[in-house]
Amino acid sequence: MTEAFSIPRHSDFLGGYLDAVARTLTTDTELVGLSVTFADAVACDDDCMTDNHQRVPIENWSREFCAFVEGFLGIDARSRLGFYLVDYLCWFRDFSDDAACHRYDHHDPTTEIRYRIEWPDGCRVVLIANRTVRTPSLPGT
Fold first, then answer.
1. Which domain of life is it from (predicted)?
2. What per-residue confidence (pLDDT) applies to 75?
3. DSSP state of 68
4. Which of 32, 36, 72, 123 has a CA 20 to 30 Å removed from the CA of 19?
């Protein structure tokens, strides 16, 4: 017997995978942050989507997330790391009904991108990706 797809459980699973991807991409000079948050209809608010972001509806999830993986993260979408990341993001559409996705572009899309996947019942999943240049620490500090 197979278990039904659970958006909250998949969000938790995806969060672990995103953490692993971020750790792989983070270097001594750059910090990569990837996070995902699930909120049910009661807990939802728009605080994470500010006026600094332009909302763009996503029609072709696979193409969008391949572009995100290759363009923003710099990973080959055909590599194991990239392929599974795109696949796991598309599962929200593939295994649930009526999911809609929007990208929220920051004024500097090279440093931050946000996605919000939402369902008619008000549940949402928010993915936040950012890249930050690390400041080298001084010796003895």
1. Bacteria
2. 96
3. I
4. 123
